[in-house]
Specification:
alpha/beta, Quinone Oxidoreductase, Chain A, domain 1, Rossmann fold, 2 domains, 6-stranded parallel sheet, two-stranded antiparallel ribbon, 9 helices, 31% helix
């Protein structure tokens, strides 16, 4: 018995299913399931024409959304959309987005479409025009200014979405948070983050990590993107060039997500 039928346009993301019986699942918090299945890691999927997916991990794709654009929304899209909508920021609040890459270029779009005042934070002046095009109201070049100081000049950020996986750069942003502000970490650096406890205590600041989301979170992301015009910037490769595509993705030079076409 399943809620899906042949011919449905569906996809699946990082969250590949949950066990329904652990403490997290019994509380309805499926994305922190103790036995979470992960697509492409604990379950096969992704780099192929066909795959098997668990029914609870499948999300419906709106008809008007192209499959090539939907793919990145199941990963970077749901991660940024879902974390921002649960961040506590409300329309008009200053939200910083650190990093203008695969996660960040979608985070800027979602934040702008949600009505936040968006400050994009990147390295080098060459990102300024793109940040503004994506919806940022201001751009902070970390090579030319101190991000925390610039954010405080704007009144302090309610939330800073940290997408570029650099622990030192993330930690340096905490001083740019307003009182009660939150550093929301969605990029995963390998090195530990060193933070001054005083900078947290002095203004009740928080640091929070956020995983991607369930299938329903993906559906919400896809619907919002379809209606608001949020789209990923992608580079397309045919399936027979999968090795070339993988190398391009791992190079860090892709603008901004590599998509395989069938």
């Amino acid at each position: 018995m399943t809620e899906w039928k042949k011919g449905d346009r569906v996809g699946t993301g990082w969250h590949g299913g949950h066990d329904f019986v652990c403490d997290s699942c019994r509380r309805g918090d499926f994305v922190t399931c103790k036995n979470e299945a992960i697509t492409g890691i604990t379950r096969d999927g992704g780099y192929q024409e066909y795959m098997l997916a668990r029914h609870e991990a499948v999300a419906r794709i709106p008809e008007e959304l192209d499959a090539r654009e939907a793919g990145p929304l199941f990963c970077a899209g749901v991660t940024t959309f879902n974390s921002l909508r649960h961040s506590g920021a409300t329309a008009g609040d200053l939200v910083g987005v650190q990093g203008i890459g695969g996660l960040g270029h979608l985070g800027i779009q979602f934040a702008a479409k949600a009505g936040y005042r968006v400050a994009a934070i990147g390295r080098g002046p060459e990102n300024a025009a793109l940040a503004k095009k994506l919806g940022a109201s201001s751009y902070i070049d970390t090579n030319a200014a101190t991000p925390a100081e610039e954010l405080q000049k704007m009144g302090g950020a309610k939330v800073i979405l940290a997408t570029a996986p650099n622990a030192k750069a993330m930690a340096a942003l905490i001083g740019g948070l307003a009182a009660g502000g939150k550093l929301l970490v969605v990029g995963a650096p390998f090195e530990p983050m060193e933070v001054s406890a005083l900078s947290l205590l002095s203004a009740r600041r928080d640091i929070q990590g956020w995983p991607s989301g369930t299938a329903m979170d993906s559906e919400d992301t896809l619907r919002f993107s379809s209606r608001s015009g949020v789209r990923p910037m992608i580079e397309e490769y045919p399936l027979e060039k999968v090795n070339e595509a993988f190398a391009r993705a791992m190079s860090g030079k892709a603008q901004f997500r590599v998509v395989l076409t069938m």
